[in-house]
Amino acid sequence: MTLVAKKPYIIEYEKGDKYMRIGIDCDGVLRDFIPDLIEKIKVTNPEHADKILVPESWDWEQWLPFWSEDETEDYVFGTHYKELFGRDSTPIKEAVEDWGKLKEWAKENGHTLCLVSAQRENCKDITREFLDENGFDFDEYHFTHDKWSIDVDVLVDDSPSKLQKFKDRSVAYGIPICMKTTWNSELHDEMMSIDRLSDLIGRCFG
């Protein structure tokens, strides 16, 4: 399928096109990972609570300046990965509210909803548990750091680097859609951007 992105942030189908493959990320789109991480640090390491900065990038050291990258990686993906990525991790409230509506719209229009998420090996199974626990049932599940390699027509993501790579390399010539956060503000005027999943239904697809 060939899509055309037109201002003000509307994706138009080319004549003859009908169905779409919609890629959706997990962390920052469905799961409230960064707020969860901040709260976890405040509980386990209260001495650092007042040193946590507003996240303005995916660079750990920009907003967690008291730890090295290796220390943060060990904290997140080693010591506390089950709490941060498992069944009881926190879903984004608006995503839960919107999911049923998005599923119904996709089914009525023949679209395919595909999870496209870059999870560490030890986080894949527990991420599936999180998705199941919160009713985020997809037609397809893809765990990969090379999101551009997945055949989807659009990718909803919060990572600036993943969105840019998808824009440059997408095997389906897909369109990146930025889920607005404080750590991707530089993309809000450069790429199609949304505030919540339900925006896909009207604003992006007319």
Describe the structure.
The protein is of the alpha/beta class. The chain folds into two domains: 3-32 and 91-204, Rossmann fold (3-Layer(aba) Sandwich), CATH 3.40.50; 33-85. The protein is built from eight helices and eight strands, in the order βββαααααβαββαββα. It has helices at residues 33-44, 60-63, 69-79, 81-85, 93-109, 121-133, 160-169, 199-204; strands spanning 3-6, 10-13, 21-24, 112-117, 140-143, 154-157, 175-179, 192-194. Strand 4 (112-117), helix 6 and strand 5 (140-143) form a beta-alpha-beta unit. The model is unreliable at 6-10 (pLDDT under 50).
CATH level-3 fold name of the largest domain? Rossmann fold
DSSP strand tally: 8
Q: According to CATH, what is the class of the largest domain?
A: Alpha Beta
- What can be said about the biggest beta sheet? 6 strands, parallel
How much of the sequence lies in strands comes to 15-25%
CATH homolog superfamily of the largest domain = HAD superfamily/HAD-like
Rg over C-alpha atoms, rounded to the nearest angstrom: 17 Å
Which ranges are low-confidence, i.e. pLDDT below 50, for 5 or more consecutive residues?
6-10
Order of helices and strands: EEEHHHHHEHEEHEEH
CA-to-CA gap between the ends? 17 Å
Helix content: 25-40%
